[in-house]
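Our platform keeps sequence and structure together, in a single record for each protein. Nothing more is needed to write down the fold, since each code stands for a local backbone conformation. An entry from our holdings is shown next, in its original layout:
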Amino acid sequence: MALNIWTQPSGISLGTFPQEDAVSIALPVSGDNGVTYSVISGALPGGIYISGNHLIGNPYIVANNTTYKFCIRATNGSSISDRTFFITITGHNVPMFITAQGGLPIGPAMQLYTLDSTYVNYQIETLDLNVAVGQKLTYFIASGDGALPNGLTLSASGSISGYIEPFLKLTPADGNGTYDNSYFDVVAYDFANRPSDGFDSYQYDDVFYDYNLANAPPTTLNANYQFRVTVTDGVNYAQRLFKIFVVGTDQFRADSTSFNGVADDFTSDATYLRTPVWINNSNLGTFRSNNYLTIPLALYDNLDVLFRVEPTNEEVYATTYQVTNTDNVNGGFYLTITNVKGTPLAGQFLTFDNYLDGATGRIYEIQSVTPLLNNNIRLHLYSALEIAIPNGIPFYIGSLSKLPPGVNFDIESGDLYGQLPYQPAITETYTFTLTGTRLGDNIFETLSASKTFTITIIGNIDSVITWNTPSNLGTIPANYICTLALSASTTVPNAQILYQLESFETTGASGNGAIATIYFSNQEISPFKAGQLVLVSDMIPVGYNGLQRVISATSNSVSFYNITQGDQVLPGTVSLDNLPPGLTLNLDGEITGTVNQYYNSSTGALGLTAVDNGSLTFDKNTTSVDRVFTFAVTARDQYNYSSVTQDFTISISTPNTVAYSNIVTRPYLKSDQRSLWSTFINDPSIFTPASVYRPNDKNFGIQTNLTMLVYAGIQTESAAAYVGAMGLNHKLKRFRFGSVKKAVAIDPNLNQSVYEVIYVQMIDPLENNGEHLPEKVVLNNGSESDIITVDNSINFFNAPASGTNIPDTGRTNRDIPMITVDSTGYEISNPNPDTYFPNSITNWQTRLSGVGLTERNYLPLWMRSIPSGQKQQLGYTLSVPLCFCKPGTADKIITNIQFSGFDFKSIDYTVDRYIIDSVTGETGDKYLVFKNDRITV
């Protein structure tokens, strides 16, 4: 029996409140003496609870603008009434800056200044407790909030980077920077230094003022840039003022008097030299042998820089440290090191050339590595040390640094050049380290920067691609998932093959309103044939672009649809796209999708041609209409060394004259569970990419959305037919996760494994041990239930049709559960309900089977395969597939899942609707929501 205490309908919002603030929300009720309230579904915001007829408390810290949906039940003895409400909680914790206000330590050694003409990469750091999983903070400098030095930019992620341009370059025409020495505003300020030449020791007016000043003017000026950075999480924001002090090129010289007696932010390691910064990427690319090679290598500033090739690559950093008196000595075979970053290995090399004065160019190879106490390491060398090595010498250990044979290195420009010699049919990768050293005014002033590069040389081989897939791809049925794939091989080592529908560049078109002709030049277009479909792109006005059927084709033209007089014709592309409707060719060669048997008027999706619903035949049924599709595909390697084009044909069969649909269900998880599930299912260390079957096909690969098949291959009808079948035995339901299992899909024709599937066995709590309840259960225990009453209003379900003169009085809200005269779960002869309908998966399927015909071949292939050691097919399995993988790889992935520690019980698999892939007149997923009544249990 329902309570009539609510003053508002379901679905209203109770308001928006800031987190952590005290709230008191009155429920929309009246006359509720003796009534208690409880939450029966959903969840209140953390920190909020029910007290009487109020929601009170302090909401916890949550992601900004989180909306909570929940249902509250009012109870008074045996009478109940439910209402659904919404509450939105907003965050008010603003982001907090970690980077201190003021001057940024942007120098190469964290100094509070930097030289102009240098490269900068500095990250501003903040913290925000309100940022949800996957959300990011955004940084910017608002208009009027200052500016960065020229050449620097602030990214949205808070990184300040770029190459600083000098604030102002001075020329002799700008004078020496003293007062009135040049015109107003010629330069930013009077830049001359204050004199200290003792002019006051001369008699008054005996010499002119500053006659003994003999300083040289600077070439660039210092500048202090101030700017305000704003960071926001999308709702709240914070600001902080920063400064960057850019020093000109003339500072930090021995004869500079600019900062006499004023140290300020300058430190003893100040230098006028700029550290070289490399521009080139580490991977210099792939080149063919037996060819000329020129690769410019550059810094942001190559001025006064010499380059060299290091003898070893910089892979392990270490510092020398003598542990015993036999270590690091001249003639000794042992070298001990400390402060090691990386792992030194036997077979690596080292040298002290360029690290230690007086060192020879000897390269030492490591014979063995022995860990010592206090994180020290002893290296046993194959050859004896030629000099004693003092403590505290930093150096690098690594593989030998090798340029490709025939390649020279210019120490002044840093360019690689030369002629690569002949190389056998192999691919070689060379790794080498280059160092750029900027020279100062004397030999003791230098700054260096090293970078390790790789270059790949392809051997002198023929680049040939060969098709593995025959031209005739066979016959596939319409409306079934396609598993075809194209395959080709290349003689280029480690190359990837890309597959694309063949396309042709056009030169123009003509048309007279009846037939249009597109022209090509210097291309053979023999793949085009009358009756084929072509895809026209970017050639003529919108309305003509798209899929068109060929009327005729010659060696340099194709004729098809109409182009009216006056249409503007542009060069474009034509692709031979004669794939069956509904199929797509991926770059990896997989042909994905399902063949559309019928045209869809609502979406415009093409289907197969049918005459008289397929009953018309020609030539004793030997001639087909639009059932054989021919298309051209080009396979090429990623280096574009070679390509090959081949025609393929697919024949389509139509085993069914009736359309069928699949019905699935899936849970709609809370944000924390979605994040937990996403982290698990997208972990490549668990689901190894090399093991995944058809990773780019949504019907296979890794399954990210916890979909569970309910009914495969039910006759496609209107949505109302399925809703009617769901009238009984359907209600919100929670399933339990069982064990993780695997199954093998066997090709019934070849008797070979096609793929393996890893799935979680799902458990229906009402169907333990394989048993299930009947469709209905009648209870005669002598107790009386609530008397059934029928609502005599139909306004809830009906409203006047548009265009009629009947006034629309709106729809009447009805208490839950809703009982109407068309309900079949209640008996007119029995006002006290004693018949209940179990909410189980078997009863779901039984009700759905009454909609129409069932086609068993829509079951996934793995359910229609016979497991090893058994005599019958696996059959329908209540399960959630996790991953489709290549044969023989499922066991390894299952082991990864077991050792990952993921607990499936942390996922609430509660469903409240079906998802059907098509209904009559429409395609695409449609939702069929379960109703909520008291006779479904």
